[in-house]
Amino acid sequence: MKNVEIITSQNVVLQYELASLQDRVLAFMLDMVCLFGGGGIMSAVFAGIFSFSKTAQDAVVLLIMCLACFYSLAFEFFNKGRSIGKMALKIQVIKLAGGQTTFADYAARWVFRLIDIFFSLGGIASILIMSSSKGQRIGDIIANTAVVRTQPKVNIDLQDLLSIHETSKYVPVYQQARKLQEQDALLIKTTLERYRRFRNESHQEALLALAERVQEILGIDAVQGKKSDFLQTILKDYVVLSR
Q1: How many of the other CB atoms lie within 10 Å of CB of 215?
Q2: What is the span of the domain harbouring residue 223?
Q3: Phi then psi dihedrals of residue 14, to 5 deg
């Protein structure tokens, strides 16, 4: 899975998992279903109200054309980079330079959809997304945006946990660690890795908050030493006790 790092104006490094080509294709297909469905509903409504006179037909055609043309631009701008399909797939358009994505950014992506997707039947977009380190099509490159997952897939499995240390002779410190779930252990490992990689205030606060939450869940009153060492010990204890 590809990731992208963004440095905010406060000099905080944020790491996002890029949306896969499959995610983006499925989101596009869902958007098309919504468009055709919306067009069908509008046609039925107009037919019932106006008995589908020539004027009504022209109005419906014009309305559906506008809907199809401006659908992605309107939804992404008013819904923070998410169309209906993107919301369903939990992906979103973000600005790689950090900060708020502007209307001009969304407009640039929208204009180049003609080349990226429609004129090339998605061929150009697919090739660029798969070959680009940031998963960008032409519109993304021009706007300096990327499509990321709002809920990253788990990219660490139990085998990663079991390989942290040789645990055959290790004696667990906190027996309460057996209460943890697999997703809890994965969250601890991910938080520790990000803290070690990005030593900034944001990740330190996340680590401290997680340590306090783990203490609360496991009923551990006091912890000696650093919170990072505590979480590492809990992780090792979980690996041994859950084997």
Answers
A1: 19
A2: 158-241
A3: -110, 135
* Domain final residue pick, 92, 127, 149: 149
What is the value of pTM for the model shown?
0.64
Count how many domains the chain has. 2
Residues 145 and 172 in one domain: no
CA distance 34 to 37: 5
Same domain for 83 and 41, yes or no, is yes
Measure Cα distances from 123 to 22, 88, 114, 127 in Å: 13, 23, 12, 6
Walking along the chain (243 residues) 10 residues at a time, the average pLDDT comes out as 69 76 95 88 74 70 85 93 94 89 95 92 93 93 93 56 58 87 84 80 84 90 85 87 75
Q: If you ran DSSP here, which 8-state letter would residue 115 be given?
A: I
List the structure tokens of 85. 């399909």
Cross-strand partners of 13: 7
Distance CA 230, CA 224 (A): 8
Question: How many whole angstroms separate alpha carbon 138 and alpha carbon 136?
Answer: 7
**Which amino acid type is present at position 33?**
V
